[in-house]
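Re: [help] complex structure
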Amino acid sequence: MQKLFRFLKPYRRELIIGPLFKLLEAIFELIVPVVMAKIIDNGIARQDSGYILRHCGLIVLLGICGLCFALTCQYLAAKCAFGYGTTLRKELYCHINTLSCTELDRLGTSTLVNRITNDVTASLSGVNMFIRLASRAPFLIIGAIVMVLIIDWRLSLIFLAIAPIVAFLLWFVMHKTIPMYGANQKRLDGIARRTGETLDGMRVIRAFSRQKEEAKRFADDCADLEQAMLAVGRISAVLNPLTFVVMNLGIVAVLWFGGVHVNTGLLSQGDLTAFANYMTQILLAMVALANLIQILTKAQASSLRVAEVLETPGSMQDGTELPDTDGSEAIAFSHVNFTYQGAGDTALSDISFTLQKGQTLGIIGGTGSGKSTLASLIYRAYDAAEGEIRLFGKDIRTYSLDALHHCIGTVPQKAVLFTGTIAENLRWADADATEDDLQWALEIAQAADFVAALPYQMQTHLVQGGRNLSGGQKQRLTIARALAGKPAMLILDDSMSALDYATDAALRKALAACRDMTKVIISQRATSIADADLILVLEDGVCVGQGTHTELLERCTVYKEIYDSQMQQ
Amino acid sequence: MKHTIFRILRYTKPYWAHLVLALFCTLIGVLLSLFVPILIGEAVDLALGVGEVDFAGLGQVLVKLAAFVVVSGVFQWMAGLFVNRLAFGVVRELRTELTEKLGKMPISYIDGHARGDIMARVVPDIEILSDGLLQGFAQLFTGVVTIGGTLYFMLTRNVRITVIVVLMTPLSLLLAAKLTTLSHSTFQKQTQLRGDIGALTEELVGNQRIVKVFAYEKRAEERFSEVNAALGEAGRKATFYSSLSNPSTRFVNGLIYAAVGTVGALGAIGVLPWVGVMSIGMLASFLSYANQYTKPFNEISGVITELQNAVTCAQRVFAVLDAPPEPDDSHCLMLTDSKGHIALRDVSFSYVPEKPLIRHFSMEAKPGQRIAIVGPTGCGKSTIINLLLRFYEIGGGEILLDGRSTRELTRDSLRSQFGMVLQETWIFTGTVAENIAYGKPDATPEEIEQAARAVHAHGFIKRLPEGYQTVISENSGLSQGQKQLLCIARIMLTDPPMLILDEATSSIDLRTEHRIQRAFEKLMRGRTSFIIAHRLSTIRSADHILVMRDGSIIEQGDHASLIAKNGFYAELYNSQFAGSGETA
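Output below.
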């Protein structure tokens, strides 16, 4: 929580001046009943119409000043709250960018998106309402207390007796509901996640005609949320009426003992009116305070969720070195072990190999054998649990991640493109890539022809995820995207699965011409990696063979089996 | 805006009892609370001065006051409970209906809208709607009752001063209305930007891995900041404008208070005879009424902001609900058991009108036949599947199943004739067993295991921390191939007359594919199957091969005849050995 306060620091001025102005307004508001009491006690008693008019003029003047103060406060509150919220949202997003895949896997996307959007909004609303109301209500209460103390301190003891009761009430409701609001936010996360999944799986759901069941599961989730909201509602619904009852019973006592004091001459009738007025004012302020506390309670629950993400440290230590890609050694693994967090089995064990600059590494193996995991260690999505990984001659952990990723072009298994034009997508690796660079990348990726045939060529707009393209087209664009940054090393993580053999072969031929680029190719197809300088054969996370195609055909039964299964035709 | 509000109100129908009770409790609670200032005034009037206090009368008034307060409190509390039930019920209803609607939307709608934007409508928009509804409803009604009640009490006390108060009310309303129009457009902008930032965040954070490997963080942050700053600006404006109304109406209230005070006091001393007789106690209670009468205006103007916000969000929700769904097909034929005879006659289709994709496409699949569709990427292979399952409707021609146009069949019954495995896997958050049994929820654990064994997935499932009961999701660390195996296992459990395999094994290694080939053979036996694959090994044994290029068939026949023809197919087929040809 403390962490969030620093985002308020730049708005120290607004945070102080805003409530201060609100305070001034409240003071003026507090004076009004005094002036009115004077009108009753002096003006009416003395039958002085001039006195009455003058004092009513004063009330109007106080109102005008109050208005000006209030408007200033509202302006400052909006400025501060949205300033705070905007910075917080940005920082939160930037922080998520520093998290490694381990934390992202653990947290999940939908909750992060929800925290960036909804929770930040709830938090900033809290700040806004705090500035607008937090000074006013307590001040009205304190001010009214001072006034009643001056009028008749003995009567005030009644108020001092009920104040702790109301305070306890407020505390109790807050204490009970904060965790419940947090739990409800989690339920909302679940609903968001399910919505996302349903959207992704729309075709499968319909193919199985399961729309009704999906709707039912949703309905269950929503009903569950409804019950939970009702539970919180039951507690917080008590707050306002109970405050109302307690305070008014206080007024009843004041009127009784006030009557006694009037009878003995300790109090005038006008003072009793003023006293009762102040008690009403305290009551209203208490109700406002109770409402404010409810808003703040929700804001608090959301702020905690935001803070939780901000306090999650990125488990990956960033280095400072810049990679020098001119050296001869490109990749060197020595006795590398890796296990996913929360998984039982090791994903990779005892992997060792060395690859020189400009060479091609082929990785082949069964489904779930650890091919993609090995690739993700090369671009340091995760850190190895044991063993050493050297890239461009130095320990991978010494490099600045940013600089490292600029040297490596990665093509992920799942072809994902982003909303925007093709050119914008291609400039992901290098914002300043020229038109020629992009064309070069498209040509190597065998995508130049189909892009040229599109109505707006490279300026064609892609809908989210590139849904308006076929699987193979998307895949070729993701390859071009990686190439457009002119990387020193290219990693293709089974990225040619949607390409037909002719395109696949043409692509490999074009890649082979880039002699300086080190290539890591993961594939199911023996033909795709047969030309590689070094081939790793993985099975259940263990390297069961490494060498060139011819060597492996002689020595490695697993490799031979794979190769034969494809060549038997 | 009015239309939207009425529409929201329609959703309260199932809760009419709660609504009536809420209104009733509010009415009682508020009316009783209105007696409070009168009784306080009466009590003050009974304490005139030294030795002039009527304790017997005072006692009676105070007992009455205490009773009113307690009863009013109880009713206010109950009203709150009823309103909660009403508001949360409506929210559940809306959200359920919205998600149900998504299941009825044409696939083209889902394909054409940003995922994050649709999600924003399901989650935050409805939340805001709920807040607005809850606050708006409770305060609006309380306000109306308070105004009505106070007006009545004031009228019974002094008609003339009441007239002054009522005459000044429009000032307050006018101001509030002016400010509302001022803030409405900024609110709309804010809501739209909130949708934008949701969509952007969803896209970027959802693909964080790609953002990372491209060291795209800085630029992602720039893009985020840009939308974020715009949202901050719009939010600041909307909030400021809407927050103007509260102090402004409060100011008007102050004026009314001063006017009542002046006129009342002048009346009390007899300077303004038309005001009538006025005691000090009466002036006191009148002053508090003036306060109480104007406060609701103040609150209502605050509520209007909330409502405005809620209405904008409701409009976004209703926009989805109003989008045309897949046309109703309840009058169509429910197909129960098809023979699997499919014919496409002269089918044409395009996603965008100006770019025809499939032109005059005809083919026939006899029951039990294995049809393979091959061709370069982007030639329209997957589109054929979209059309067969009626995810998209054909533009021209017709598709016949067992001699009957598929348009005459219900979509659900048509789709349930097909078992489909797509290249893009879909795993939902749930256990492995639930994922496999998706098409057959009542499958026994033995059946599930059998299906998993058939696709050689049993081994890796067993190694998961909790076996078949391990909760998995799209991003839970399963490899693409493993996910594909689970999707195939899904089909193994169902018994559809026809199969569609769209690159179903593209991420599965060939050895595993080879091993599950037997299961596939068994699955395809006697079923009409459509197979799309790049690996021509899968295709070689097909009864009929369609070679597509640019949306039309350029060659067809079986493997041997196509090779003999030495055309485009032969070229494709030979290319897969080209790579090894150089080394081997």
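Residues 578-584 of chain B have pLDDT under 50 and may be disordered.
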